[in-house]
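G., the chain you wanted modeled:
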Amino acid sequence: MAEKKLGQQTVKFNNPPSIISTASIAGIKEGEGPLRDYYDMVLKDDLFGEESWEKAESKLSRETVLLSLSKANLTPDKIDYLFAGDLLNQIISSSFSARELKIPFFGLYGACSTMTESLSMASMVIDGGYADYAVATTSSHFCSAERQYRFPLEYGTQRPPTAQWTVTGSGAAVLAKNGNGPYVKFVTTGRVMDFGVKDANNMGAAMVPAAADTILRHFKDTGLSPKDYDLIATGDLGELGGELIKDVVAKEGYDMGSKYTDCGIEVYDTEKQIDVNAGGSGCGCSAITFCGYIYDQLVKKNLGRVLLVSTGALLSPTSSLQGESIPGIAHAVTIEMG
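Predicted structure as tokens:
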């Protein structure tokens, strides 16, 4: 067996990479939510001074990376690798951003699981001795996602209660070989799971099987349990998916109880904010929540050990129109101060 492998799907790092800085930039609606004080910047308009939403999202990605580097007193030429992805076709937000940053680039697609996918890959490269510094980042934009996946905004489609609001935002984390923490201790790589859900307006339910599979495998591989964590946060299951996953995991003997939350629930006030329905979604959902609030709480030592499980629905407009079901994926990282 590979020397750093635990069980079937988990890696334990011998020299855990340190997350030496993070940055988060959020959209207008996100800036009105409960976590507003933890974002480094809140946009004043969705176009971010650009001519299109797609260009705005690419700028969002680029500026977040630059801000994270500035906070670490680093410049792009000091970074060995950039791991990034987004929701748009051919991950154009990330690749166009990388075009300007000039950092060696690995483009990733894990849908909304991309934050932990990028953290996983960056951590493996650093622990493997291939890099001193790496950046993990992702982004999403409500308007660009709506244009690609659903309907033109001008259409004014009524949204069902199970629908979620795609987060406009980007989060970036700078990982280093040496640092004072928080540290990435474990990575549990997810499997693609599909229980036949076809409703693209109920992606929380579609992603629950993958999220549960990854969480349960993490506990079995590591020997840890919910009591060993201060916080277990999924990426964007929303209110419906968040309730479902607690039940599924509990049936297997792991009661997450008050330790559990979902970034899609935390990012908006579903009672006071209009149209957010079941909560947030999108790559930016777990990205701005982790790079803003969760990282802040780790650094302040209000949290000691966190399991971040970003979740992704691996659908496309083409697959939906052809009647395909929605496969899900979830990747988990354990981040702790000690």
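The chain has a mean pLDDT of 94.

Shout if anything looks off.
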